[in-house]
Amino acid sequence: MTHTLTLGQDALDRLMPMHLCIAQCGLIHFAGPTMRKLMPPCAQGVEDIFVEAQGAASGHVIGAIRGAAPGDRLALRLRHRRQLMLRGHVVTPGFGGLLLNFGFGVSLSDAVAAFGLTESDFAPTELALELMFLQEANRAVQQELARFNRHLMLARQDAEREAHTDALTGLLNRRGLQAALRNALDPRGGMGGFALVHLDLDNFKQVNDRLGHAAGDRLLGDVAHVLGRVVRSRDHVARIGGDEFVLILGGSWSCQALTAIGTRIIRGIEEASPEGCGISASLGIVLSAGYAADAIDRMLEDADVALYQSKRMGKGRVSVAPLPLEGGPRPLTAPR
């Protein structure tokens, strides 16, 4: 048994708020309330609203609509917002012309944002809002995960920085020095040559004995400032315990240049000495040339040997060790 069903425009608006009724030539008869929000105010035909799915304004939109077979999906883009793709189908109603009904598909979130759409703009049976809620929930979860990962990364960086930093002076500690030396010796991205300076304060015990440990701590901070004025951004300074410091000075160096830098350091430390304590410094220096990438301990030992050569020769001196194959360190006295 066949019945004729006649729906008024009000019923179509409620059932299919994104419908569009057009003549065979493409002129618009009427449109649903949500479709009217998408249309330019002066739109008279489908060419004023849509372009083909490929985004080209070829003027053949009505041909694509008429050519859509029953049951085929029709895909069109909004002429004035071509990032928004509408998908739907077309039927030939009993009252003549063509009746189209659309949905947003994957463009839903962008369309809601672009046109300020709400729940009332969709049919009661439309799952668009549920899908949009899932998209928003997924986006919120992704944002929260990204924020958590960012916080975790920053916390890890803070923990690593704290683990590599001397609390008293803010310089690298022994662990930080080891990491800096590994990077400096790495043939894939190291400094391409550097000088390792081992420094030990002379007569430091007198400060602690005569003025107290607080004065000793202040002096260590002053020494850190002296060393900070000598180094460049590519260099590293570490306090490895007590009154011992190590510097990594990137680049190629001559013995004369290193002696000059050592002299500046000694004079700066002597100027920072509390009155009557006679604080100075002894330095031992080795050059990275000739050391393998895993020879960190040997470099530190050779610098320590050079340092105590300076101690034995009267303190307040700079000793530069020769390359590893040449034997023991060669003392160079700093100008006083």
From TrEMBL:
GGDEF domain ranges (all copies): 192-323
SMART domains: GGDEF (SM00267)
Domain of life from the UniProt record: Bacteria
Pfam families per the UniProt record, alphabetical: GGDEF (PF00990)
Alphabetized UniProt keyword annotations: Nucleotidyltransferase, Transferase
Class of this enzyme: transferase
The keyword Transmembrane helix is assigned to this record: no
Listed CDD domains: GGDEF
E.C. number: 2.7.7.65
TM region positions: none
Record GO terms (molecular function): diguanylate cyclase activity
NCBIfam families for this protein: GGDEF
Protein name: Putative diguanylate cyclase YegE
